[in-house]
Amino acid sequence: MSALNRVGKKEIRDLLGKGWLTHDGMWFYHTQQELGVEKANILNKAAIRSLAPIEIKRVKKAFERNRSGSCRVLCTKRNETYSSNEDGWNY
Predict the structure, then answer these.
(1) For the chain, what is the domain count?
(2) Quick check: is 65 in a domain?
(3) Which segments of 1-91 are extended strands (E)?
Protein backbone atom coordinates (compact mmCIF):
# COMPACT_ATOMS: atom_id res chain seq x y z
CA MET A 1 0.00 0.00 0.00
CA SER A 2 1.44 3.37 -1.02
CA ALA A 3 1.71 6.33 1.33
CA LEU A 4 -0.94 8.15 -0.72
CA ASN A 5 -3.41 5.31 -0.16
CA ARG A 6 -2.75 5.37 3.61
CA VAL A 7 -3.63 9.05 3.93
CA GLY A 8 -7.33 9.82 4.14
CA LYS A 9 -9.19 12.27 1.90
CA LYS A 10 -9.76 14.63 4.83
CA GLU A 11 -6.05 14.69 5.64
CA ILE A 12 -5.16 15.42 2.01
CA ARG A 13 -7.81 18.17 1.82
CA ASP A 14 -6.55 19.70 5.10
CA LEU A 15 -2.94 19.55 3.92
CA LEU A 16 -3.74 21.27 0.62
CA GLY A 17 -5.93 23.86 2.34
CA LYS A 18 -3.28 24.70 4.92
CA GLY A 19 -0.66 24.93 2.17
CA TRP A 20 -2.81 27.41 0.26
CA LEU A 21 -3.49 29.49 3.39
CA THR A 22 0.22 29.57 4.21
CA HIS A 23 1.08 30.67 0.67
CA ASP A 24 -1.60 33.38 0.72
CA GLY A 25 -0.44 34.71 4.08
CA MET A 26 3.24 34.70 3.11
CA TRP A 27 2.46 36.39 -0.22
CA PHE A 28 0.64 39.21 1.54
CA TYR A 29 3.31 39.53 4.23
CA HIS A 30 6.18 39.80 1.76
CA THR A 31 4.22 42.08 -0.56
CA GLN A 32 3.45 44.52 2.24
CA GLN A 33 7.07 44.34 3.45
CA GLU A 34 8.32 45.19 -0.04
CA LEU A 35 5.66 47.63 -1.24
CA GLY A 36 3.82 48.81 1.86
CA VAL A 37 0.40 47.92 3.19
CA GLU A 38 -1.56 50.23 0.86
CA LYS A 39 -0.07 48.74 -2.31
CA ALA A 40 -0.36 45.22 -0.87
CA ASN A 41 -4.09 45.80 -0.26
CA ILE A 42 -4.57 47.13 -3.80
CA LEU A 43 -2.85 44.05 -5.24
CA ASN A 44 -4.79 41.73 -2.93
CA LYS A 45 -8.13 43.21 -4.06
CA ALA A 46 -7.06 42.85 -7.71
CA ALA A 47 -6.20 39.21 -7.08
CA ILE A 48 -9.61 38.64 -5.45
CA ARG A 49 -11.37 40.26 -8.42
CA SER A 50 -9.64 37.96 -10.87
CA LEU A 51 -10.05 34.88 -8.67
CA ALA A 52 -13.77 35.29 -7.95
CA PRO A 53 -15.17 34.18 -11.33
CA ILE A 54 -12.99 31.06 -11.28
CA GLU A 55 -14.06 30.14 -7.76
CA ILE A 56 -17.73 30.75 -8.54
CA LYS A 57 -17.53 28.30 -11.45
CA ARG A 58 -15.94 25.73 -9.13
CA VAL A 59 -18.63 26.20 -6.50
CA LYS A 60 -21.39 25.92 -9.11
CA LYS A 61 -19.84 22.74 -10.48
CA ALA A 62 -19.42 21.27 -7.01
CA PHE A 63 -23.06 21.89 -6.17
CA GLU A 64 -24.22 21.04 -9.70
CA ARG A 65 -26.13 24.30 -10.06
CA ASN A 66 -27.70 25.14 -13.35
CA ARG A 67 -27.14 28.41 -15.21
CA SER A 68 -30.64 29.77 -14.50
CA GLY A 69 -29.33 32.53 -12.24
CA SER A 70 -26.25 34.29 -11.04
CA CYS A 71 -24.50 32.87 -8.02
CA ARG A 72 -23.92 35.66 -5.50
CA VAL A 73 -21.44 35.41 -2.71
CA LEU A 74 -21.67 38.00 0.04
CA CYS A 75 -19.30 38.60 2.87
CA THR A 76 -18.94 41.41 5.33
CA LYS A 77 -15.59 42.58 6.62
CA ARG A 78 -15.63 45.47 9.03
CA ASN A 79 -18.27 47.82 7.63
CA GLU A 80 -17.69 46.98 3.98
CA THR A 81 -19.76 44.56 1.92
CA TYR A 82 -18.31 42.70 -1.03
CA SER A 83 -20.42 40.82 -3.52
CA SER A 84 -19.34 38.60 -6.33
CA ASN A 85 -20.90 37.24 -9.47
CA GLU A 86 -19.51 35.87 -12.71
CA ASP A 87 -18.34 39.35 -13.72
CA GLY A 88 -16.08 39.76 -10.66
CA TRP A 89 -16.16 41.49 -7.30
CA ASN A 90 -18.10 44.63 -6.44
CA TYR A 91 -17.03 46.84 -3.55
Answers:
(1) 1
(2) yes
(3) 73-77, 80-85, 88-90
